[in-house]
Amino acid sequence: MSIRTQTFAPARSRRQPRGPAFSRRLHWIYLAFGVAFLLFVGVMALLEHLGLPRRWIGFLFLVGPIVFYAGIGILSRTTDPAEYYVAGRRVPALYNGMATGADWMSAASFIGMAGTLYLSGYGGLAYILGWTGGFCLVALLIAPYLRKFGGYTIPDFLAARYDGNLTRVIGVVAAIACSFLYVVAQIYGVGLITSRITGVEFEVGVFLGLGGILVCSFLGGMRAVTWTQVAQYIVLLVAFVVPVAWLSLKQHASVVPQATYGYQLQKVIASEKTIQADPAERQVIEIFKARAAAYDARLVDIPAALAVERRGAARRIADLKAANAPQGDIQAAERVLARLPHDVDEAREAWTRARDADLERAKPLAGMPPHAQQFAGDPHGDAAARKAFDDSRRNFIALVFCLMVGTASLPHVLTRFYTTPSVAETRTSVAWSLLFIVLLYLTAPALAVLVKVEVFDSLVGMRFDQLPAWINNWTHVDGSLLQVADVNGDGILQLGEMKIGGDIVVLATPEIAGLPYVISGLVAAGGLAAALSTADGLLLTIANALSHDLWFSIVDPRASATRRVTVSKVLLLMVALGAAYVTAQKPGDILLLVSAAFSIAASAFFPALVMGVFWRRANRWGAAAGMVGGLGLTLYYVLVNQPGVRETFGIATPIQLWGGIQPIAAGLFGVPAGFAVLVAVSLLTPPPSRAALAMVDDVRLP
Amino acid sequence: MPISDLPGPTDAVHDARARHWRRTRGLTAALLLVWFVVGFVVTWFARDLDFPFFGWPFSFWVAAQGGIILFVVLNAVYARRMARHDRRLADDASASR
């Protein structure tokens, strides 16, 4: 107990409001905020009607909410440690639920998930199941006990339960590792949205967004982050649900698509059959197969093929010059020559990639599995189909497991449950959190199906000269989001002629539904709120791990309360700048690494947190070994098997998948290994101290 | 006042606490079982549970709606029942003083 009383003895600030009266005041404040936000959207709609240029509307939608968040941040500024680290522990369950919802739902949930569901159908539901089921583990196994312990950070709990700073340091390293990967992805999302809407450079967008993140967290720590996250939740929910309901109303006269999209799904299934049987679609597929075969032919003798290509390009330039062609054409031909691979290695890489891309597009339904089909392959088919089915089913389950356990281990989410007034309110608060998250997660699969109906039934089969304007707009914005080309030259769009990036599903919904531009601005504001709120929580977690857990607990335990908060703020600023710097380099495989963050968090924290409460015999050495062992195994599996990571570290050993499990679900091995090592080492070493046992008994009581 | 701060863990208080922890574990295990069946068992047999359900194939609906709504209910049940257990513990503890 000594560690606990020593570290967390700040006098409860009596002036701060709490209890039912505080809740009532919050109801009024956020009701007013909701109304003000709707008014803001209304005014924007009016301005659009009066002819304000789109760029200005987009700009106002980014700046308006940020100014508001900044206002909350400034009002919530504090130098009191309990306020800075855990918002004074007086956040009512309902509001902590909203804040957790915003904290949890990142740019990936807001923008990426509906896109993943569009592209992979049932396969994408692993994210829905995993990211919601994880909250059951949070509620049942972790959050109430953390709250009863009542520390500031997750490493605090590990240090108190496992007698000292060994587990604290391991916890700090793991917390920083998974949170930093995650925060870079959030800032990336902020930069993307800001630059798209306002037209500034990506790097400028990153630093503008960083300003938005810092005004919330810098002045007021967890207190400011909490109250801005509640506002951000309201914004992101409205921004996600309104366009979908509107699209649904236009498409099948229902404003609750969540309840009715089953019938739209039937339409998709019927269209999938028609499209697969369409001869024009088959023709497109044959063309892509032929293109891939041409690359294969070149790859047989690369130097010769390269020479042929060079000669051809040079001859074309000569021909153009001889024919006195316009300067533009000649320059274009020169660019073609300059862009040819310079040597054999480069040519092999480029052509292999091009061949794979063509093969990818030569699949039926543009590479998308039938939307409602559970898992790939066929359990009653031939050997290959059976294997595909088994692999796909195993990976789906493994991914669900890792996302669930990872959700229950992410430090920035768990810290939120320190902020409620009591253990009972923490339990209620997890239920509220999940409810608020589910509101959005019920809508995303509906949106994916509605957009698919729109694409399959309206777009496919349309003449190229009659395509709606949004197609043209988005192909110009970014070729990775949308590409259309009349591959077979029949003047009609086939599904195979369209290449879609997942992010467009949410971003273009307003235009697909033919809604006013103001709704596009609203969606951007929602995406920004999702990214900002998550980034705030993550930055705070990293900075507090560095300041509270490393600096004050180990290096300088006698620092005064005010000094602690000041140093935390300085570290927060440094971490934020570091993360923005990394983001501005546009690291390629960051999204893959973010998925791995769940496995990393799961294998490092879950066994130690759960066994710390449910098994009294778990001790310091067992926990430390379990954390290192589980984390080590997960990292090893990712390192050896993830293509991007292999490239970065130049790993040449052959890929060895255990049971065909993809590296994204590495936690499937890391978590059980962590448990096993924790139990074995605990039993081989002396039992935990009396203080640790007293703490276990204490957290088990409400 | 937190129950754990009550003076002197007499035998009766000790028993009450042990009962509370037993009930907590029982409830946790029961709810985890539901969680496991919905999250993993139903999912494992998703291909076989393909019958139509208001337009959706049943297992698609479970993963997209039914399962996650049940998770919310599960959390709410846990919060309510644990609150009741807490009250019983408080009653037991104060009765034995």
Order of helices and strands of chain A: HHHHHHHHHHHHHHHHHHHEEHHHHHHHHH
Number of strands of chain A: 2
What is the 3D shape of chain B?
elongated
**Count of helix runs of chain A:** 28
If you had to describe this structure to a student in words, what would you say it looks like?
- The complex is a heterodimer of chains A (702) and B (97).
- Helix content of chain A is 76%, strand content 1%.
- Chain A has 702 residues and is an all-alpha fold.
- A two-stranded antiparallel ribbon of chain A has the order 1-2.
- Chain B has helices at residues 11-44, 58-95; strands at residues 52-53, 56-57.
- A two-stranded antiparallel ribbon of chain B has the order 1-2.
- Chain B starts with 10 loop residues before the first helix and ends with a helix.
- The longest helix of chain B is centred in the last third of the chain and has 38 residues, at 58-95.
- Chain B contains 2 helices and 2 strands; from the N terminus they run αββα.
- Chain B has one domain (10-95).
- Chain B has 97 residues and is mainly alpha-helical.
- The chains are: A mainly alpha (702), B mainly alpha (97).
